[in-house]
Write a structure and sequence with these properties.
With 387 residues, the protein is α+β, with helices and mostly antiparallel strands. It contains 13 helices and 19 strands. Helix 7 crosses helix 8 (192-199). The protein starts with a strand and ends in a 15-residue tail after the last helix.
């Protein structure tokens, strides 16, 4: 009898089998490292992980799966639909059979049909370039430590704040964090009900900061407590004491703080007071609609950078469709629209990804100088919002 291969989204009854496949594929054996603990916002029962996975089975045996998780970015007054790809897995006994390629092809077809503006994932660059993904966006990684405190204050200054590990039952704290987070000029999709599981992504440790009983902010440490995934505050004047509080909690001589370019007040403090910093890509992205993504993130960039006046027309052979768009900046106002005008530059998809989103692009100098300065776009996803 010939093998019967079937690919489809799963159902809730398949969750246990799916989690066994994922943990087996990635070699996760302890409760601490299993996907259910690692990323609860995706794999807890209430998020229906099997329904969000394209599952490949052969004669009823589950052999491979790819997760497709939809969400939104709110970029100023623009809303972008997002798609995240995660847990790309083939059972170790069946690797090399092409199952991953089948699942990824179906996942990408689905994402294109879903009207998603941008997709994202984490993984090997050359492997996922075949599907249109490329490193992009930007984030700062600041290194801050005890020596920075001593050099500024000539003593081992302590934070005036206390910190508390956040629990799922801390509804009042989670409500405050959600309110502050959702007031930002850029945010992903978070609610009070999902905030705790989001902050726990990658087995992280979220802390709330207090002055007595008054809530002052929060930070999220990675598992090793040597890097903060995010840091938030009620008042900018409290940033220094919140950062010093994080230094005390980490228990190390120094640690890293990740921040987006548009977190202006946090970046200003750290840029002036840290030991050093790096600018790195924030994730791997795949732009499905260049018009929407360029408009949203260039308008966001205009909020914290003065943009040069200029205009250019790009023809892009996109991963989803071909686009010919005109980008205009006048007095820091941005417009992006379809056009029939002759393009200044024609680009294939990966070249376009590097030009508009990459820290390095060999094609950017082909643009007029004023237009080249608009890029890279500040595309960003916090580690807590990745898949």
């Amino acid at each position: 009898m010939s093998d019967y291969l079937h690919m489809r989204h799963g159902n809730d009854s398949q969750k246990e089998e799916l989690m066994a496949l994922l943990n087996k594929t990635f070699g996760f054996t302890t409760d601490e490292e299993k996907f259910e603990t690692l990323i609860p916002k995706l794999y807890n029962d209430e998020y229906h992980p099997a329904q969000n996975n394209i599952i490949l089975d052969v004669n009823g045996e589950m052999r491979a799966a790819v997760g497709v998780y939809y969400g939104s970015f709110f970029v100023g007054d623009e809303k972008l639909k997002t798609a995240g790809i995660g847990n790309v897995a083939t059972h170790p006994d069946y690797q090399g059979e092409g199952y991953m390629k089948f699942c990824m092809a179906l996942a990408m077809d689905e994402i294109k049909q879903s009207m998603a503006d941008i997709a994202m994932l984490g993984g090997a660059r050359q492997r996922y370039a075949h599907y249109g993904f490329e490193h992009g966006g930007a984030k700062y990684e600041f290194t801050y430590g005890q020596e920075n405190v001593r050099r500024k204050f000539f003593c081992d200054k302590k934070s005036k704040f206390t910190a508390k590990l956040i629990e799922k039952t801390d509804k009042d704290i989670l409500e405050k964090i959600t309110e502050i987070y959702n007031s930002r000029i850029f945010k992903a999709e978070r609610t009070t009900d999902t905030m705790y599981d989001i902050l726990k992504t990658w087995n992280a440790n979220p802390y709330a900061v207090f002055d007595g009983v008054e809530f002052k902010g929060w930070y999220v440490f990675n598992k090793e407590t040597d890097c903060t995934f995010e840091l938030g505050f009620v008042n900018a004047e409290d940033i220094e004491d919140i950062v010093i509080s994080a230094l005390e909690i980490c228990g190390k001589k120094q640690f890293k703080i990740s921040a987006a370019p548009f977190e202006i007040q946090l970046c200003k403090f750290l840029g002036l007071n840290c030991e050093n910093y790096n600018i790195i890509h924030s994730e791997m992205y795949n732009i499905m609609c260049y018009e929407n993504v360029i408009r949203a993130f260039l308008k966001l960039k205009s909020k914290f950078n003065k943009l040069n006046d200029g205009e250019c027309v790009l023809f892009i052979e996109g991963n989803k469709l071909h686009e010919q768009i005109k980008i205009t900046v006048k007095d820091n106002n941005v417009t992006v629209c379809e056009t029939d005008e002759k393009p200044d530059l024609a680009l294939k998809h990966l070249d376009a990804m590097r030009l508009v989103a990459g820290l390095y692009s060999d094609r950017r100098n082909e643009l007029p100088a004023a237009c080249a300065s608009w890029f890279p776009l500040p595309i960003y996803v916090a580690p807590s919002d990745t898949v």
